[in-house]
Each structure stands twice: as structure tokens, then as C-alpha cells.
Write a structure and sequence with these properties.
The protein is α/β, with parallel strands linked by helices and 407 residues long. Strands 3, 5, 6, 7, 8, 19 and 20 form a 7-stranded mixed beta sheet that branches. A 6-stranded parallel beta sheet has the order 11-10-9-14-15-16, with helices on both faces. A 3-stranded antiparallel beta sheet has the order 2-1-4, with no helix packed on it. Helix content is 27%, strand content 25%. The chain folds into 2 domains: 220 residues, Quinone Oxidoreductase, Chain A, domain 1, CATH 3.90.180; 151 residues, Rossmann fold.
Length: 407
């Protein structure tokens, strides 16, 4: 089968980093670490595994960071090469291991991509897996599988940027007949937003900022409303099409980041006061009660620290890796709480503890959550160069979520 894989080649890495700084297409060109090539279909690692025939493989922002060699080198400790990219998915079971119960060939499923203790054959799960905090598993680089945080960044399971990949029984969630493939492929992105929302749910009287209206920022808005939050939700969007979608999903207000004065707007809406230092950005006394930072850029993180009130909280949802131009002064000056967020686990939602994927699929089946409109672009796998270029230039092409399609 054909697959999009990343190979471990220091020369390719150095060459494309140098050329890619001035010519982005180098990252998917002939010298890149990304290779479109023949690969064997994944073999089931054990009797509790199944093989999935991919219908949609989502193109996540984390995948784009990987293609552009923007990930921290730290993550390579939890990666094994070569690996087939793609963790967002919806597909149909094509082969069933002998010890798998509850699923049959032909079942439509989504796969929770994390590869914690249960998938690795570890008989005594780590303390985090025992309490359902799978995203904090201590064994992502040990056990019977090669290192890998998720499907799509390890050498054994494959990924959804190919026609087939493997999944453990514990990762499978049946897709209700009421849920479209377009909604199903959005489950992973939504749950990556649901997790920081449930762990940092605002009070109804709070004013919150969602910095960024890409897929995750929009899903944060959807997650807040699905969880019943009545907080004042203000979204900072870069493009008009993102602003329109934020309003559709339940934002109270949207600030288009390229228009007007963001600092002045936040000061006015929160009753804060701006002060101008000798150099640099203004300082805000007052501000939002809680900020979900969903971009991961230096500017967005820096602005978030400045725009939150004293004693407030900033939740880092965007994939920040090595920010270099962030002024950390606000953290101690305002005594801020900074929280990180990675993937999802068992969440507490309105008094019920449930796995995030299960909750998302239930809401979709009930009609309470509809993310199908976020899937804006579809590509065949052999058109991967156009797919990546289009996804990177989301403003030009009005991209929210792009996917590879295999049917």
C-alpha cells in the first residue's frame, strides 16, 4: 500500500530545515524526511488487535508541525522510525484478532490514538493509566510496542495517512449510525479541546478568551457549550470565515485579530486599564478571568499572559514547543496559574465520568454536537503536496479541517 511516512535522517532534516526557512515546499520535496512510498500493511501486534481500513485521515496541526520539523527534539524519545503519519481517523474494521470481543469485521469505528499501558501489554498499568489519565502514561517508550505516543508516530501501528492501520481493542469506539464520517473524524480534535475545558471549566460569571479560531479554538467553544457553560466566551479569530464559525458554535463575541486594537478591546470589555511601558507592549491591569491559548505561537502566548487578570489562569492548548519571544514577567507579577493540556482521558462531565471519545460520539448521535461543517477540504493521499500546502495557507484557502479520503 502507499503511505506517507517520516524517516529518521539527520542529513534530510538539516537540509530541509535550511532550505525550508526560505522555501516551504522543501519540507515535502524530494529531499524531505516525509516520503510517499510503498509500505507493507500493518501486521496485528497481538490477538487483541484489529486492522482498520481508513475512510478519513485528518490532517492535524501537530502533523503539520512534524512535517515542517517544528517539534521539540524532546519528542523523539517517544517516537520510533519510520512511522506513518496520521492519528485523526474514522474507518472500518478489516481484520479482527482472535481475542477481540465486541467488534466484528465491517464495524465502523474511531480509534483513540494514544498508546498507553493497555496497548503495550503491560500487565500492571502505571498509576496514571489505573485512574484513567491515559495521556500521562509513564510507558509510552516501553512494553511490547516500539516507542510512540499515538498511532501516527510509532513504527508498529501505522497511521491514518495510509489505507490501513492497526489498533488495540481498548482504543476502539463504535460510530453510531446517526454520526457521519465527517463528524467522526472530528472526534479526536474535539476531545483535545474537551479535555482542557473539563479540567479548567470556567464559572458562569467569568469572561474568558479563546485565543485562536483554528480547529482547536473552535472546538473549545463547542466543548464549553456542550458542557453547559454559560460563561462569556470571547474568541480572537484571524480570519472572517473563522469568526463566522465561532459565532455558529456559540461564541458571545468575536474579535478579528487583524482589525482594531486587541488590548484596548479586552481592557474595555473587562473594565481593565492599560499602561504603557518605556518599551514593548502595553501592560493591562484587569483582563479576562481565564484564557485558552489555542495557537501556540510566541505572540499568542505572550498576549495571553498580558491579557489575563491578576490571579487568573492561562491554559496552554496550542502546541507550543520552543517559544523564544515570550515575556514571562506576568506569571509572577500577576501570580498566574499556567496549565498544560495533552490529548484526553477519562473526563468528569456534568457529574459523570466517561472517556472523552465516548462522550463526543454520544453528543453527536443526539444532535447536540455537530462538527461536520468544520471539514472543509478533502484530498486523495497521492495529492499530499497540495493537501499540505493548502492546509498551511489556511487563510488563503479558507481551511478549517482538511482530511485525506480513501473511499
Amino acid at each position: 500500500m502507499k503511505a506517507l511516512q517520516l524517516v529518521d535522517s539527520i542529513p534530510r532534516y538539516l537540509i530541509t530545515k535550511a532550505i525550508g526557512a526560505v522555501y516551504r515546499p522543501a519540507f515535502w520535496g524530494p529531499l524531505a524526511m516525509l516520503r510517499y512510498r510503498e509500505a507493507p500493511e500493518p501486521v496485528l501486534p497481538g490477538p487483541q488487535w484489529v486492522k482498520i481500513r481508513t475512510r478519513y485521515g485528518g490532517i492535524c496541526g501537530s502533523d503539520v508541525h512534524t512535517v515542517l520539523s517544528e517539534d521539540s527534539p524532546m519528542l523523539s524519545a517517544f517516537t520510533s522510525f519510520p512511522f506513518t503519519l496520521g492519528h485523526e481517523n474514522v474507518g472500518v474494521i478489516a481484520e479482527v484478532g482472535s481475542a477481540v470481543e465486541g467488534f466484528e469485521k465491517g464495524d465502523r469505528v474511531v480509534v483513540e490514538p494514544l498508546l498507553p499501558c493497555a496497548t503495550r501489554g503491560i500487565e500492571e498499568p502505571c498509576e496514571f493509566c489505573q485512574r484513567g489519565e491515559y495521556q500521562l502514561c509513564q510507558n509510552f517508550a516501553t512494553g511490547r510496542l516500539a516507542p510512540g505516543l499515538t498511532i501516527g508516530n510509532g513504527a508498529v501501528t501505522g497511521g491514518s495517512w495510509s489505507p490501513f492501520f492497526a489498533a488495540h481493542r481498548s482504543q476502539l469506539f463504535p460510530v453510531p449510525k446517526e454520526v457521519s464520517d465527517e463528524n467522526a473524524v472530528m472526534v479526536d480534535a474535539f476531545c483535545s479541546a474537551l479535555h482542557p475545558v473539563t479540567r479548567n471549566l470556567p464559572h458562569d460569571e467569568d469572561t474568558i478568551l479563546v485565543m485562536g479560531a483554528g480547529v482547536i479554538g473552535l472546538c473549545v467553544v463547542a466543548a464549553l457549550r456542550a458542557c453547559g457553560s454559560r460563561a462569556r466566551v470571547v474568541v480572537v479569530a484571524r480570519y472572517p470565515f473563522q469568526a463566522a464559525m465561532a459565532n455558529r458554535l456559540g461564541a458571545d463575541e468575536v474579535i478579528e485579530g487583524q482589525k482594531g486594537d486587541l488590548f484596548e478591546y479586552v481592557a474595555q470589555m473587562t473594565g481593565g486599564k492599560l499602561y504603557r511601558p518605556l518599551l514593548g507592549k502595553r501592560a493591562l491591569v484587569g483582563g479576562a478571568d481565564l484564557i485558552y491559548e489555542c495557537v501556540g505561537s510566541d505572540e499568542s502566548i505572550d498576549n495571553s499572559l498580558r491579557l489575563v487578570r491578576s490571579g487568573g489562569k492561562v491554559v496552554l492548548v496550542g502546541l507550543a514547543s520552543t517559544p523564544k519571544r515570550v515575556d514571562w514577567t506576568s506569571i509572577w507579577l500577576k501570580e498566574l496559574t499556567i496549565k498544560g493540556s495533552f490529548c484526553y482521558g477519562i473526563e468528569s462531565i456534568q457529574g459523570r465520568r466517561t472517556r472523552a471519545f465516548q462522550q463526543a460520539l454520544e453528543w453527536m448521535a443526539e444532535g447536540k454536537l455537530d462538527l461536520e461543517p468544520l471539514v472543509t477540504h478533502r484530498f486523495r493521499l497521492d495529492d499530499y503536496k497540495k493537501a499540505i500546502a493548502t492546509t498551511i495557507h489556511k487563510g488563503r484557502y479558507r481551511v478549517i479541517k482538511s482530511v485525506f479520503t480513501f473511499d
